[in-house]
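Q: Is it fine to ask for two folds in a single conversation?
A: Yes, each is treated on its own. Send the first.
Q: Here.
A: Result:
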Amino acid sequence: MQVVKNYLYNASYQVFILLVPLITTPYLARVLGPTGVGINAFTNSIIQYFILFGSIGVNLYGNRQVAFVRDDKERVTNTFYEVFLMRLMTIVLAYVAFLIFLVMTGKYHTYYLAQSISIIAAAFDVSWFFMGVENFGVTVIRNFIVKIITLISIFVFVKSYSDLTAYILILSLSLLIGNMTLFPNLKRYVGKLRFKKLNIWKHFRPSLVLFVPQIATQIYLVVNKTMLGAMTSVQSAGYFDQSDKMIKMVLALVTATGTVMLPHVANAFMKGQTEKTKEYLYGSFSFVTALATLMMFGMAAIAPKFVPLFFTDKFLSVIPLMMIESVVILLIAWSNAVGTQYLLPTNQNRAFTTSVVLGAIVNIIINVPFIIMWGAEGATLSTVISEFVVTGYQLYIIREQLNLKKLFKETDKYIIAGAMMFAVTIIANYILPEKWIMIVLEIIIGIVVYLLLLIIMKASILKKAKSILGR
């Protein structure tokens, strides 16, 4: 039940995260326009590289290491301070590198400086620790409060394109303040700092092992925006960013299970419960497949009506991007289940690293010709292909460790139900007028059709869900 509780904590926050952009994104699309949205997306993509190199894989590594020792307070204390202080030093180096970049770059100085507060914020991000001890309530409550303050600030201080700097500052400062608010909760788990007992740099090399896949992951998360901004226009980067934002918001509900399951599986693996770790994956994989299939077909179906109402007619170019990128919802759901919930907790770091490095390499290689030929649509298509490579390699690696037939059991039922739901929703799209109430109606119709088909096909996931909710 602890896993279910943590998932509900995480999922409830992800729903909230989903709702916030549903309020702010259409507002910002109108007041900042494609250029303002594009400049923010482009400059932020550059800043993410400095955050990435400063963080050196700590979020995944710290989470796992704390999960390994969480039953011993002294070891928990030492692990926290060692990992925290190590990242503090590497973030300082990253900020120095950013200042050198700022001197060398020719434009957007003000926007870059406003964005750079996010680099400082990364130094004080200790959410990895609370994930390691499986206390998701602390981070969720913190994030709720920070997001609400951020939401209010955006509507108060951002009124036009000239307020772009203010908007970036609001986002950056909210990260910094939000991260600082977690520190008072550490005293429950962490003892006094004793420098003599610390061995900070022993964590550097193993964290680098997880840093490599994070580099690769980040490359095909932000490199598309960077390349679009550099090769075509900031507007194209803005179109891609808006599509990506919508897909990633929905995807967050699916990948919430990965955050919850990593420390849980890692702890079971350390206790030698090998079969139990496999059973965790079978159950989790079935759940995320059912959920991701619904969301993949659903997002693709409502995009033609959703985009003009949500972003205005200035962003019609986002429609095909959303329809293409919706495929990654299912692919990332699978790679998140296999990679984050199985390969990482069972110390198969090399396999995980190889999968995302391959995805990044494919992304970079095909991005250039795809962007030249098809612009933002090409960047989106390269993202889908990259995720397919990541997922395919991970499944190849585990083919002899796990029963793939059992892993994909009933996946065909989810795909059939999803495809039928897509067809019904697309028909409804053409029949119903272009109004918000009609989009809501289409979503309800889609969900009902999907669930009814799963009931007709007697999908076992419904029985499992019923038994969990009945506890």
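Q: Second one now.
A: Result:
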Amino acid sequence: MKVIRNYLYNAGYQILAMILPLITAPYVSRVLTPHGYGLNSFTNSIVFYFVLFGSLGTQLYGNREIAYQRNDREKMARSFWEIQIIKTVGILVALGLYFVFLGFYRDNRVLMIFQSINIIAAAFDISWFFMGIEDFKRTVVRNTLVKVVSLILIFVFIKNPSDLPLYILILGLSVLVGNFTLWAPLKRILVKVSYKDLHPLRHVRPTIALFIPTVAIQIYVVLNKTMLGFLAGTDASGFYMSADNLVKVVLAIVTATGTVMLPHVANAFASGKDKEVNNYLYSSFDFVSFIAVPMAFGLAGIGRHFGPYFYGRGYAPVGLAIMIEAIVIVLIGWSNAVGQQFLLPTKQVKPYTRSVLLGAIVNIVINIPLVSTWGLYGAMLATVLSEATVTGYQLWYIKDTVELKKLFVNFPKYLIAGILMFIPVYLLNVKLWTSVSSLILEVLLGIVIYFVVIWVLKPTILQTAKKFLKK
């Protein structure tokens, strides 16, 4: 039950991290116009490269390392400070390089300076530590107040397109303050260690090893926005971000299992429970399939009219973009289960790295021709093909370690239920005038159809759910 509780907390945390821009999006997208909204997307995509560089691979590595050592409080405390020292130094270097970059890149100067707050905020992000000790409640609760306050500030102060710099400032400060709040509980959790006993350099090599796949992942996540900004204009970059934000909110619910299971599996692996590790993968992969399929088909079903209705006039291209990208909910869900819940905690970093590097290479190779030919929709297609490459390689790699048949034993049933759900939902979305009530009707219809079909087909996850409920 602890895993389920942590999953719910982490799903809440992941959604919370994205909920501010999503809740305010219908308002902000109209106030800032597609041009202003696109400028935010484009400038943020540039600063993100520096955040990525400065953070190295500490998010994944720190989570896993703390999970390995959480039974020894002194070792855990030393590892925390050593990893945090590496991250702080990396962020300072990245911040310096960013301002060197601004010396050459003079477009949107005020926006770019305000975006730099995100680099500073990254230095204080220690969410990886709480994920490692499987304390997800603390992270969610402490960030909620900050997110609510920033949401109020946006509605109070953002009134016209000229307020774009203030909007970026509010978003950046909300991340910074939210990260600050995570430091207060450390006094009660960490034991005191002497700075003479700290040896941060021992973490450099494994951190960089995880930095490589982290960079590869983010390259084909952020590169599309950057390339759209250069090749198709900042408006297209804004459309991409708009569609991607909606997909990623849904995806956060699916991938929340990864952050929860990584420390759990890592701890089991460190204890030599290899069979238990495989069983975790089978259960997690099946659960991911169970929730990812209806979410992908459901979002695709309502996406055509929901996107432009949600963001407002001028955002018509977002609808089809959502429909194209929706499939990555399943693909990323699978790669998250295999990569972050199996390969990383069992110290199989090299195949994980190869998989995401392949995805990045595919994205870079096909991005320019696809974006040049189809613009926004080409970028979406590039995203789908890149994620398919990552997932395909990971599944191929583990075929001799686990039974692939067990991973997909229930997937045909989920797929049938998803397709049968999609057809009436999509037809309703096309024929009905889009409103809150019609969207609620479509979502409820989709849920009912999916679960009725699941009940008829009876996948094994129903038996698993009954066992959990009896505990």
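Q: Anything structural to flag on that second result?
A: Two points. The chain is about 85% helix and 0% strand. The mean pLDDT is 84.
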